[in-house]
Each structure stands twice: as structure tokens, then as C-alpha cells.
Amino acid sequence: MNTLRAWQRTKQDAGFGSITWSQSYGGAELGAEYERGFLAVEEEFQTPEGHEAVTISLDLVGPTILSCGTDEQKDRYLRPLRRADEHWCQLFSEPGAGSDLASVVTKAERDGDGWRVTGQKVWTSGAQFADYGYILTLTDPQAPRHRGLTAFLIDMHSPGVEVRPLRQMSGGSSFNEVFLDGVWVADADRLGAVGGGWQVAITTLGFERVVGSRLTGGAPNFCDLLMLTARHLGRASDLIVRQGLAAVWADQKIRWLITRRADAARQAGGVPGAEGSIGKLAMTEGLRRIADVASLILGPRLVADSGEWGTFSWSEFVCGVPGSRVAGGTDEVQRNIIAERVLGLPREPR
Ligand SMILES: Cc1cc2nc3c(=O)[nH]c(=O)nc-3n(C[C@H](O)[C@H](O)[C@H](O)COP(=O)(O)OP(=O)(O)OC[C@H]3O[C@@H](n4cnc5c(N)ncnc54)[C@H](O)[C@@H]3O)c2cc1C
Q1: Do the two domains 2-87 and 89-195 of this chain adopt the same fold?
Q2: CATH topology of domain 89-195
Q3: For the segment 267-286, what is each residue's pLDDT rounded down to a tens digit?
Q4: Ligand 1: lining residues by beta carbon, under 6 Å
Q5: 252: Cβ–Cβ under 8 A, 6 or more apart, which residues?
Q6: 2-87 CATH
Q7: Please, are residues 154 and 137 in contact by the beta-carbon 8 Å criterion?
């Protein structure tokens, strides 16, 4: 985590950390093709492994503050966020609100020139490292659904915030339960209008799907890694393995093209829409295929740590793939969005 932080700072200070961002907030104001060019060069080197605390800050919270925040919020939060000096988490999901995010019940009640927030969030990635959280709350239980919600920027070190890590089947604890007991938030840290939280959340979900379609990191890397592993284990001439490798390569090409289309839409000033769902779904299908091919190549070596190069290290990846089908909107929800907004099929009964 510290090396990743240092890497992000180095990039930011050298002018490569926020290539497409406005100069007012530490960016270079260049087109997405410049960012892609830099990423392609970066992928040729071994750099610190990604971490959800950094991804959420840079790819979800930062763009949301940029889209929906006040000038004061942008001035205060964006530069340290881009340098990874301050980490953020996304406090959306609750025990009773995941896909149906508008059902959140964590409430925020007026208290002087601020608000008191009380409730429970869950699956909060990176909360144990976060300095700040971006939270969706219920401020008007009487209002029609989607109109009673308000978003806030909350200091995770405030009295009343308790973070409890959850243990995953991979052995790690990347996400948490977060309990909030009367946590005070200044009205100046409200993100968007009172009752406008749904629009703010939708903006973030659009960014999340686009990022979700890129979560695998460099497109050619998994294919190269699988090929190296197949060669190392003498499986590279197996017909079924070769077919799997070709399918992984094709998936990655398709995902790259989808990403380029989303980038072009973003560059033209649009907020990511349904193409994010297509990218997210393509990403999870691609990850599933990579996990299948890795399992085919490795066989029992996947679960037995023999110390042999390039074998057991795949086990954490394979265990993490089911989670990617849920995080950032499940596969079923992405299919609903594509059906309704891209294909124009009738809306599902609500
Ligand atoms: C790795 C990981 C990281 C995460 N990080 C965060 C985070 O940082 N912050 C955060 O707020 N949340 C986070 N989440 C939570 C994630 O957003 C939710 O898990 C997700 O939205 C699904 O909600 P749920 O778990 O409540 O499942 P539910 O919404 O209860 O869904 C259960 C099942 O029902 C299906 N389903 C639900 N509605 C429909 C429908 N309308 N049509 C068809 N099928 C449907 C779903 O596809 C799923 O299979 C993370 C989750 C994972 C796995």
C-alpha cells in the first residue's frame, strides 16, 4: 500500500497522474488517448499492485466530486485525493440495500449547521484505510423513493464511526462493515442538493461501471501471463488450452474496444451511460474465462502451494472472480440495464 501510494505521488508530481483532468485540480487537460498511451507504457513495467482504496478514490470519488461538488469541496479534496495523500471509501451498500440502492435507511438528520448520520453500511472496500467516505443517506423518509436521499463527504476519523473488517474466502479482508452512530457532518460537506443524492449516486455508478470494465489492469497482461504459465508447465500445445488462450485474447481485445468507446464518450463531455454496463459485463465474463483457463492449465497446482513459479499465485485471483460479478452492480443488474436502455426491451416489473 505504501509503495502504491508513493508510485501515485510520483506520477502525479511528474504530471502523469491525472492526464485528462483540469489543470485547476492537478491535471494536464489532455485527451483520453494520451492517458491510454501512458497506461500502455506503464504496463510494460512492473509497478506496485493496485488496491481498492486507491482505485475507489481515484476512479469513483474523485470524478464524482469533480462532477457534483462545490468549488470549495473541489479545492479542499481533489489534490490530496489525486496524490493518494488521502484515501476514500464508498459508503453505499447496506444489509438491506445493494442492487436496490434507493432502499438505503442510514439516516441523516439536521443538527444546527450540519447533520447527524446514524446507520450501518456493509461491503465497504478499503474503509479500514480511508480518511474520508462518500456516503448515501436517507434524509426524508416521507419523500417518494429516489427523492429522499442525500449524499455527504464524511470524515472517517470522526467520533461515532466504527469500521469492522470482514474476512473473505481468499483469506484477505478487503471490505468492511461500517457503523455510524450520530456522526456529525457539516452542511458544507453535503455533496449535491438535499434530496439530490440519487443523481449523485447514479453519476458514481456510471463511473464505477466504466472502471469495472478496466479492473483487470493491462489488457494483454493476463493473456501473456497465462501463456507463460502454460509454456512453463508444458501445456502450451494442448488443443483445449490453446483454444482457451485464444478466447482470452479475443475477450481482451473486445474489452479494449469497449473501453475506447466509453473514453470517447467521456471525452466528448458525456457522463458514462449504458456502455459502462456492457464493459462491466464483458469484464466479468473475461475474468471468468481467465479463471477457467488458469484452472485448466494448473489443475491441482492451483490449490496446493508447492512453491513452484507461477502456480499457487493464481489461487487468490480465481477466488476473487465471483466477487467481481457482484461488485459495482451484479451481472443480472447490468443485463437489465442493457435490455432496457440499449435494446429497448420492456421494463421489468417493479
Ligand atoms: C468485491 C466487492 C466490493 C464491494 N465494494 C463495495 C463498496 O466499496 N461500497 C459499497 O457501497 N458496496 C460495495 N460492494 C457491494 C455491492 O455493491 C453489492 O454487493 C451489490 O450492489 C449487490 O448488492 P447485494 O449484495 O445486496 O445483493 P442483492 O442486491 O440482494 O442481490 C442478490 C441477488 O439478486 C439479484 N438481483 C437483485 N435485483 C435484481 C433485479 N432487479 N433483477 C435481477 N436480479 C436481481 C442479484 O443479481 C444477486 O444475484 C462490494 C461488493 C463486492 C462483491
Answers
A1: no
A2: Butyryl-CoA Dehydrogenase, subunit A; domain 2 (2.40.110)
A3: 776 666 677 788 889 989 99
A4: 90, 92-93, 98-99, 123-125, 175, 323, 326-327, 329-330, 332-333, 336
A5: 216, 219, 220, 222, 223, 286
A6: 1.10.540.10
A7: no
